[in-house]
Amino acid sequence: MSALLQTAQTESDTQPALRNLGKAITRSAVPPLDLRAYYDMLFAAHGPQHWWPGRTPFEIIVGAILVQNTSWTNVARAIENLRRAKLLNPRAIENVPAPRLARLIRSSGYFRQKTKKLKNFVRFLRREYQGSLAKMFRAPTAALRDQLLAVIGIGPETADSILLYAGEHPVFVIDAYTRRMLGRHGLAPAKLGYEDIRQLFELNLAPDATLYNEFHALIVHTGKHFCRPREPRCGECPLRWFLPEPNFLAVPVDAKPVAQSGVRGALRPLWVSSKAERTAAAT
Ligand code: SF4
Question: Which sequence spans correspond to the domains of the chain?
Answer without folding.
Answer: 11-49+176-278, 57-166
